[in-house]
């Protein structure tokens, strides 16, 4: 008899009505964004040329703990939320571990990931402000797909700059975006000044998120009635993604379950920031304690090998500077199949929490990630995204430690999405052609030397 169901669902009525702003409970607030021209803390009027007004207010608010989720957004959420919290009984049995493993599955929508949670919020505020459309970048394509879906729902134009390597490797994602009416341009492109500059300096580059961001920002600020939206890193995105953690906590509370360890993969930090939000809140308020682990690729190790410093969020240096764990905005990571984790920086909120010793981070090589992905797929029935599989890897590792020690720890991890569009990566793995590229200290030092002197 299993007293905890395989899937813990919440009813529609139990879904969160507010997002939770973790910053409100932080003693050491994340350092402010700086204006790239003056190097002074950026103001709301300066930011509102780039972002929608309500989103600027959310971005800069370090004190309000709860933001009401507008009814239009809650109704959209109801199409694919609440997402299930699954007890991984089958995986536990296969591993022979006494650990209890749960995962929050965010792949139950066409975009295939958690990114729709913020995309719909950002599209809503753009529409409310009367804009014509938005621009953005996408790495592996999940964010672009999510934003296309959100924009088509609110009848907004959507211009997506897609990192070239993914544009070429993932034609199916591109076509999904076009189904939803978005225009998709490979980045770097000749459509923007910054794209032209990057192409002349790095001919043949496969692109990077940092460079696609610069292009999308330039397009937004030079096009009337457009603003830029970003799918990760920013405080506003973490705020929207708190719906993941709030649902997780509500589901666990229903059965009086206390997690010992909460694990998530970290690209720019939005799913992790969202998943851990209510747990970290309790930790910050001194009510509970949890181990919280960020997992990143060894090829793009912002937390574990980066510097905690002010840096540009984009390669073209048009965006504000953020104080974060960074590999340097010029760092172009080796092609890695977890495209969504190939970003040089990290959320300022998570960076501060990590700096203050409130969470841990580990980096993992990609072949080990795909081994875990396959082990999971074979017993839990879900084909995971490579990004999500970083969290699976560490969840399995922690469960195996429990097997050695006999501890019955409760592990919760974020399963951010599905991997149906990542079959080229799985193919490389099966054919033994996957490489575990790890940047050398010298490469990183070269990139750190170019950090802005602030
Ligand atoms: C984008 C993405 C990530 C990483 O982004 P974060 O902002 O760090 O959450 C993780 N998993 C999936 C499936 C993604 O699409």
Shape: globular
What is the residue-mean pLDDT, rounded to a whole number? 95
Tell me the fraction of residues in β-strands, as a range.
15-25%
> Count of helical segments?
18
Q: Terminal Cα separation, in Å? A: 60 Å
| Total beta-strand segments | 15
Instruction: Specify the structural class.
Output: alpha/beta
Strand order of the largest sheet: 1-4-5-15-10-11-14
Quick one: biggest sheet?
7 strands, mixed
Helix proportion range: 40-55%
Extract low-pLDDT stretches: none
The kinds of small molecule bound in this structure are: pyridoxal-5'-phosphate
Q: What radius of gyration results from the CA coordinates? A: 20 Å
What tags apply to this protein structure?
single chain, four-stranded parallel beta sheet, binds pyridoxal-5'-phosphate, globular, alpha/beta, seven-stranded mixed beta sheet, 454 residues
């Amino acid at each position: 008899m299993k007293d905890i169901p395989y899937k813990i669902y919440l009813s529609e009525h139990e879904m969160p009505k507010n997002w939770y702003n973790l910053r409100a409970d932080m003693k050491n607030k994340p350092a402010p964004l700086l204006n790239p021209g003056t190097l002074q803390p950026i103001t709301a009027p300066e930011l509102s040329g780039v972002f929608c007004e309500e989103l600027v207010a959310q971005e800069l608010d370090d004190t309000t703990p709860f933001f009401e989720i507008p009814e239009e957004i809650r109704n959209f959420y109801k199409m694919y939320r609440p997402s299930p919290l699954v007890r991984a009984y089958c995986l536990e049995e296969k591993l022979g571990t006494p650990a209890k493993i749960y995962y929050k599955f965010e792949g139950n929508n066409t975009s295939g990931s958690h990114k729709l949670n913020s995309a719909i919020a950002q599209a809503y505020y753009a529409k409310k402000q009367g804009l014509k459309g938005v621009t953005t970048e996408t790495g592996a394509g999940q964010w672009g797909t999510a934003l296309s879906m959100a924009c088509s729902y609110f009848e907004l134009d959507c211009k997506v700059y897609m990192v070239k390597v993914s544009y070429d490797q993932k034609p199916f994602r591109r076509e999904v975006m076009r189904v939803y009416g978005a225009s998709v341009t490979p980045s770097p492109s000749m459509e923007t000044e910054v794209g032209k500059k990057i192409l002349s300096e790095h001919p043949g580059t496969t692109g990077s998120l940092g460079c696609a961001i610069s292009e999308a920002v330039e397009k937004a600020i030079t096009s009337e009635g457009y603003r830029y939206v970003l799918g990760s890193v920013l405080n506003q995105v973490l705020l929207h993604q708190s719906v993941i953690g709030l649902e997780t906590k509500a589901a666990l509370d229903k059965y009086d379950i206390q997690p010992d360890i909460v694990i998530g993969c970290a690209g720019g930090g939005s799913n992790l920031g969202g998943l851990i939000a209510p747990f970290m809140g309790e930790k910050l308020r001194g009510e509970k304690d949890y181990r919280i682990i960020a997992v990143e690729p060894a090829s793009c190790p912002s937390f574990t090998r980066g510097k905690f410093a002010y840096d540009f969020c984009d390669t073209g240096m048009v965006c504000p500077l953020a104080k974060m764990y960074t590999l340097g905005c010029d760092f172009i990571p080796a092609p890695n199949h977890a495209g969504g984790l190939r970003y040089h920086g990290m959320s300022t909120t998570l960076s501060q929490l990590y700096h203050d010793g409130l969470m841990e981070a580990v980096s993992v090589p990609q072949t080990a990630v795909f081994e875990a992905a396959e082990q999971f797929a074979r017993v839990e029935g879900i084909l995971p995204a490579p990004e999500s599989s970083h969290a699976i890897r560490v969840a399995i590792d922690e469960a195996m430690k429990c097997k050695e020690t006999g501890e019955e720890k409760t592990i919760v991890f974020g399963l951010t999405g599905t991997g149906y569009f990542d079959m080229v990566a799985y193919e490389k793995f099966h054919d033994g052609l996957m490489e575990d590229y790890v940047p050398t200290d010298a490469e990183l030092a070269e990139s750190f030397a170019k950090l802005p002197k602030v």
